[in-house]
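can u do me a favor
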């Protein structure tokens, strides 16, 4: 049975990221009144923007040092187990991979504000102990298995590569449609390609 495709009006679509529940609710109310299609994107973009404000290299080194510290890893793992016990009343931890939670459950069970619950989830996500299932419904899973932890990071890499790929294609199209000669076009394209590869795969000098 064929299903009719939903019409998509790009002019009446708003993409947003948010860590404040009151602001989200106000935005949703405004969107309904004006028949605007809301698309929520991962709140991580807010923290990525923060890294631009602070200075990317400084921010990256802070995060790398934070997650490389085994004491921090151990503390985050223990916090994950504590959160599991709190949300499930101490159920068998082997059921962790099949259990989904909502952010509202963390708020209620731990007596936290929306922002505090978000902070905890985001910190555990940095270590890979939280997998976001749906940003819009604010659902997630807790996990301790190493393969699952790597999958969280791998998913982030794929999403960024997708964005990067489309941005690079746009850059290439602009070059190809410009009035500069072919030699300059090639030089500009090679320069950008080298920059992207160097930034992604660069290693610190020992």
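np, heres the sequence
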């Amino acid at each position: 049975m064929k299903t009719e495709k939903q019409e998509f009006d790009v002019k009446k679509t708003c993409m947003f990221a948010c860590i404040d529940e009151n602001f989200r609710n106000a935005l949703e109310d405004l969107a309904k009144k004006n028949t605007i299609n809301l698309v929520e994107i991962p709140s991580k973009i807010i923290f990525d923007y923060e890294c631009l404000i602070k200075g990317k290299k400084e921010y990256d080194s802070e995060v790398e040092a934070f997650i490389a510290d085994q004491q921090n890893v151990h503390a985050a793992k223990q916090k994950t187990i504590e959160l599991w016990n709190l949300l499930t009343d101490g159920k068998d931890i082997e059921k962790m991979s099949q259990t989904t939670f909502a952010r509202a459950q963390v708020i209620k069970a731990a007596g936290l504000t929306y922002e505090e619950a978000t902070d905890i989830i985001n910190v555990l996500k940095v270590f890979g102990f939280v997998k976001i299932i749906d940003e819009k419904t604010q659902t997630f899973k807790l996990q301790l298995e190493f393969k699952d932890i790597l999958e969280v990071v791998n998913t982030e890499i794929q999403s960024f590569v997708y964005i990067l790929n489309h941005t690079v294609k746009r850059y290439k199209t602009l070059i190809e449609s410009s009035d500069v000669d072919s030699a300059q076009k090639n030089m500009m394209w090679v320069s950008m390609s080298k920059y992207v590869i160097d930034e992604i795969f660069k290693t610190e000098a020992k």
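The two ends are 61 Å apart (CA to CA). hope that helps!!
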